[in-house]
Specification:
The protein is mostly helical. Helix content is 56%, strand content 0%. The chain has 6 helices and no strands.
């Protein structure tokens, strides 16, 4: 599998999915890529990503003051997380692009601009503190749903 760096600005989820499938097939790794194994690998990579920020306190956007080597390491760990997520969705038969777009629509309903703009409150706190009915918004106990 060729991996030309910096030859393309945008990469689709479909391209990543296909590249990951080819990568695994070339190495005969499909046998190890069960949903459980991929999930555990993903969690491990999220842990490695977390370690980068662990003792830095609040970090401003753009990572001012970070060395190029630190930013490169961050990019590698973010890539590992994305690649395992894409592979997991493929193995589970989930179209990640469609799932993400659907989830954004759900979140737009749960977090209407006029009620939540500038607020970090969970959707049920915003709705319960407004005069608007919350009958169509489900409280599932999940904070901010990926946004």
């Amino acid at each position: 599998m060729s991996t030309p760096a910096d030859t393309q600005d945008d990469v689709s989820l479909s391209e990543l999915k296909n590249k990951m499938a080819d990568f695994a097939q070339e190495r005969d790794w499909d046998q190890f890529h069960s949903p459980r194994n991929l999930l555990l690998a993903l969690v491990g990579e999220v842990g490695e990503l977390s370690e980068i920020f662990q003792w830095k306190g609040e970090v401003p956007r753009g990572l001012p003051g970070w060395e190029d080597k630190e930013k490169q390491h961050l990019g590698e760990e973010l890539s590992d997380v994305l690649l395992y997520l894409v592979r997991l969705s493929d193995i589970c038969g989930v179209d990640l692009g469609k799932a993400v777009l659907r989830k954004l629509e759900i979140n737009a309903t749960k977090y209407p601009v006029k009620l939540c703009k500038g607020s970090s409150k969970k959707h049920n706190q915003i709705i319960n503190n407004s005069d608007t009915s919350s009958s169509n918004i489900k409280d599932d106990g999940v904070s901010h749903d990926g946004v």
